[in-house]
Design brief:
By secondary structure, the protein is an alpha+beta fold. The chain contains 7 helices and 21 strands. It has a 5-stranded mixed sheet, covered by helices on one side.
Length: about 300
């Protein structure tokens, strides 16, 4: 079955890059509606923006979607990961600004609030995109790849010069609520030098040590340190799930990311949908549906930091 939220839930916080307050409300939607944003602060033009791979505008720092009238919403990857990780495929997201609130830098506040409201099953079959052919895209040393698999798996590798990060790898089967238990509380991260460079360009104005993990050489500057020893690679996996959710349906396949980012994952989706015979869209029966991320999640699956 498809799912939506049982009732509206509102989030308030700062945009990571703008530093401006944002109010965002997640509302139930009918079966087959998909995920859409609506800019409530815009008085003219088309204010609806589809959360879909082909509305993504290339951006190195976050995932940004826009419509033909120029209305856009950025930093959508964490809310998209939360929705995918809870098997929610239909929702209207109303927002009064151009950037999703960063909250604590992870997806856990979104997950906790949605679970508190409840997830509503709908009388419509769930659909999944089954990968049939291996596809790959590259950008220098960065690689993103999809291979056939019975369920969604994410395999990620990162390599940073900072001693506090270094090389990290993790592989996770995303079925049975693994996202909520293992990834949703992992925060966005950056290097202190990056923070200074971004602020010099008028970016990251809403970033603080409370909504991002900041590294400086072998030091973790954020109070309380890391939530997981490998929190950076877990957050990269969180981002990947959010970016893959823009496919429009859950993916049954193995995603491999090696130094990959938002833009490369979106390029991978473009290649998937443009490659003849690379995928098929299946209606999921009860057995296959149990392999989808988010099926059977309970509040008790939330980690301590949520």
């Amino acid at each position: 079955m498809q799912n939506t939220v049982k009732s509206a839930v509102t989030f308030k916080g700062l945009g990571l890059h703008s530093g401006k307050p944002v109010r965002m409300t997640l509302r139930p939607a009918s079966a087959d509606y998909g995920i859409w944003f609506r800019r409530t602060d815009l008085a003219t033009g088309d204010t609806l923006i589809a959360a879909r791979w082909d509305t993504v505008v290339p951006s190195k720092l976050c995932t940004l979607v826009a419509n033909d009238d120029g209305a856009s919403v950025s930093t959508i990857e964490h809310i998209m990961a939360a929705l995918a990780g809870l098997a929610i495929t239909n929702a209207l997201i109303e927002i009064d600004g151009p950037e999703v609130p960063i909250l604590d830098g992870s997806a856990a506040p979104f997950v906790a609030a949605i679970l508190a409201r409840g997830v509503q099953a709908q009388q419509a079959p769930a659909r999944a995109i089954r990968v049939l052919k291996s596809i790959e895209v590259r950008d220098g040393d960065a690689v993103a790849r999809l291979d056939p698999a019975e369920m969604l798996e994410i395999d990620f590798h990162i390599d940073f010069a900072e001693a506090a990060i270094g090389q990290q790898s993790r592989r996770l089967n995303m079925s049975n609520g693994a996202f909520v238990r293992e990834l949703c509380d992992s925060r966005t991260f950056c290097r202190q030098a990056d923070v200074e460079a971004m602020r010099a360009r008028g970016l990251a104005l809403g970033g603080t040590l409370d909504n991002a993990v900041v590294f400086d050489g072998d030091r973790v500057l954020s109070p309380g340190g890391l939530r997981h020893a490998d929190e950076p690679v877990r957050h990269k996996m969180l981002d990947a799930l959010g970016d893959l959710a823009l496919a429009g349906a859950p993916i049954l396949g193995r995603y491999t990311g090696d130094r990959a980012g938002h833009a490369l994952t979106n390029r991978l989706l473009h290649k998937l949908f443009s490659t003849p015979g690379a995928f098929v869209i299946d209606d999921c029966d009860a057995l296959a549906g149990g392999k989808l991320p988010g099926i059977g999640v309970q509040s008790g699956d939330l980690p301590l930091y949520a």
